[in-house]
Design a protein that fits this description.
The complex is a heterodimer of chains A (about 475) and B (about 100).
Chain A lengths: L2 H20 L4 H23 L7 H21 L5 H25 L7 E2 L2 E2 L1 H29 L12 H22 L2 H19 L7 H22 L3 H24 L4 H6 L24 H9 L3 E6 L1 H5 L3 H13 L3 E6 L9 H8 L7 E3 H4 L8 E5 L8 H4 L18 E6 L19 E5 L2 H12 L1
Parallel strand pairs in A: 3-4, 3-6, 4-5, 6-7, 7-8
Antiparallel strand pairs in A: 1-2
Helix pairs in contact in A: 1-2, 1-9, 4-5, 4-8, 5-6, 5-7, 5-8, 6-7, 8-9, 11-17, 13-17
Chain B lengths: L2 H26 L6 H12 L3 H7 L7 H30 L10
Helix pairs in contact in B: 2-4, 3-4
The chains are: A alpha/beta (about 475), B mainly alpha (about 100).
Chain lengths: ~475, ~100
């Protein structure tokens, strides 16, 4: 195949990838988008298989089949609550693959036309080292993020003295290694770069708490793109550069949106330490106040007599697997002629858009699910806000109390609705460790118990 | 850096920055409700790194570089199949309100 034809086919594949992302602007067009991504990938793979230097079809075919079978198996089995772990695990594979491709290019530079062993072109060496560095960080960072999300490693941030100084020194050391690598090109230095980058990946994610995971997962998404870019530069392959840049900027934008949803800068999240058990001065302020407790019958009565209800789901709903019971409850309310909608905070769930997927899985139509900006001005006209498994994202302290750690965070204005129903296991604070004054208001009714059981009981009481 | 390789690098850099700009606009147009599928798709397409892996495992015979290549092909394939499939699963759940159900 002529190199021009290859370039054209790679271009087609890159364009199909762009369409794949573009399709996600609306659920209607999204499926076609996904399909165009698949076609783009098939074109990319077959074009590469047509290269004159590619001869070992059996080995490659076997590797694709084995990897594909594993991927298919995992993707079919995964429950949607565990989506963030899955994505983290997948990112780690991209990172590792990038390291292996860089290693292959280093050991066999002739096949990649970047020079000969011992005298690889300087520019290629720099690009290769950067790809390896980012790939290895993506790998270990994602493995750790996976462990934290899965719960096999404590989600608490691990903070120690001189942490940032240590990370900075390691980073400088890696740059130093890369410079030596460029002049000496020995395997020992190459693998040292890999190992130290892996260490750095662990150290970067270790101080970040479980609740900041949406930002971390998006960041690693971004890194996996930049790693692909680095390899693309090494191989002078435009398809890899374009795709890597698309993925990299996508992850970067998602991280930005997520940290904005928590009113924190990305730097602040990366430096970590948030989301642990912090001593909070404000915790005891409300100890003398009382809350109004209610049961499922009360909740059923309040909602039945309302015209409009807004549901505010949080991660607690997903943990309790309450989404199906919740949808049943909403179905009954809708039959009574009550307008019911869902309000989603940008950081609800453990990854961007997680809550939307969980609700969609429970057969909630997507046009009933609204984002914060779309629905926030409707709360004053709403009779009942039904908060299930969420806490911090409704806390008015974010607007009024400058000393609060969540001050400035955008919140859902449930306080403005006529009455608020809160399903909670206990009076425990949210992940920020801040008490919610909303619990103590006159128009708030607390429904203590498991979210799923409570919804089921409300369903019984309604029918 | 000799003239040719720096020329290739600069053209790569051009492509890189233009692609970042396209990425910026395309990703901002993605509806927030579909941010999880977006991660699924980007995860799958970032495995286009398989192109480099295939080139590494291309030649006859076995050397260390080929073994690295084949491992990378397998790793990227997990992602490609897994990423697109899990995105498909997510997207097929997003449904519009049904027009008045008849009971």
């Amino acid at each position: 195949m002529s190199s021009n034809l290859v370039a054209v086919l790679y271009l087609v594949s890159a364009l199909l990838f762009i369409f794949a992302l573009r399709g996600l602007s609306h659920p209607e067009s999204s499926r076609i988008g996904n399909l165009s991504g698949i076609i783009g990938m098939i074109i990319a793979i077959f074009t590469t298989l047509m290269f004159k230097s590619v001869l070992s079809y059996y080995e490659i075919g076997a590797a694709i089949l084995i990897g594909g079978a594993i991927g298919t198996f995992i993707a079919l089995r995964i429950v949607m609550t565990s989506l963030p772990q899955l994505v983290a695990a997948f990112h780690s594979l991209v990172g590792l693959a990038a390291v292996f491709v860089a290693a292959a290019a280093f050991y066999d530079p002739v096949s990649f036309e970047i020079g000969e062993i011992g005298s690889i072109k300087t520019s290629s060496l720099i690009e290769m080292s950067i790809g390896t560095f980012i790939g290895a960080i993506t790998f270990s960072g994602s493995v750790l993020a996976f462990g934290k999300l899965q719960g096999s490693i404590s989600g608490k941030p691990i903070v120690f003295k001189f942490q940032h100084l240590l990370n900075a020194s390691i980073f400088i050391f890696v740059i130093f290694l890369i410079i030596i690598f460029i002049s000496y090109q020995t395997p020992t230095i190459f693998w040292s770069i890999v190992l130290i980058s892996i260490l750095l990946g662990f150290l970067v994610v270790i101080p970040i708490g479980g609740a900041d995971m949406p930002v971390v997962v998006s960041m690693l998404n971004s890194y996996s793109g930049w790693a692909a870019c680095g390899i693309g530069f090494t191989l002078s392959n435009n398809l890899l550069i374009i795709t890597g840049a698309l993925v990299g900027s996508s992850g970067a934008i998602l991280s930005y949106i997520m940290s904005k949803g928590m009113n924190r800068s990305i730097i602040n999240v990366v430096l970590g330490g948030f989301g642990g058990e912090q001593e909070n001065a404000a915790t005891n302020d409300n100890s003398d106040k009382t809350v109004k407790k209610g049961n499922a019958e009360d909740a059923a009565y309040i909602m039945k007599n309302a015209d409009s209800v807004i549901i505010v789901p949080g991660y607690g709903m997903a943990v309790a697997q309450a989404q199906h019971a919740l949808r049943e409850m909403v179905d009954i309310l809708k039959k009574e002629g009550i307008q019911v909608r869902y309000a989603i905070h940008p950081v609800a769930g453990r990854m961007p858009g997680h809550m939307n997927v969980l609700l969609a899985e429970a057969n909630v139509p997507y046009d009933e699910v609204l984002e914060l900006e779309e629905i926030n001005h409707d709360f004053p006209m709403t009779e009942v806000s039904f908060v299930i498994g969420a806490n911090d994202v409704t806390n008015p302290a974010a607007k009024t109390d400058e000393s609060s750690p969540i001050f400035g965070m955008p919140i859902l204005d449930v306080e403005k609705s006529q009455s608020v129903l809160f399903i909670k296991r206990s009076m425990a604070t949210g992940y920020s460790g801040v008490d919610n004054e909303l619990f103590y208001r006159d128009n708030t009714t607390m429904l203590f118990g498991d979210a799923k059981k409570m919804c089921e009981n409300i369903v019984k009481a309604l029918s | 850096m000799d003239g040719l390789s720096s020329e290739i690098f600069v053209s790569g850099l051009t492509v890189f920055f233009l692609a970042c700009i396209i990425g910026y606009y395309v990703v901002w147009s993605v509806t927030p409700a579909l941010h999880s599928p977006l991660m699924g798709v980007t995860n799958a397409i970032s495995s286009v790194i398989i192109v480099g892996a295939i080139l590494a495992s291309g030649p006859y015979g076995y050397d260390i570089s080929k073994i690295f290549g084949i491992i990378a092909v397998a790793l990227a394939s997990v992602n490609i199949f897994g990423g697109f499939l899990v995105t498909y699963r997510m997207l097929s759940m997003f449904k519009k309100k049904k027009k008045k159900r008849i009971n």
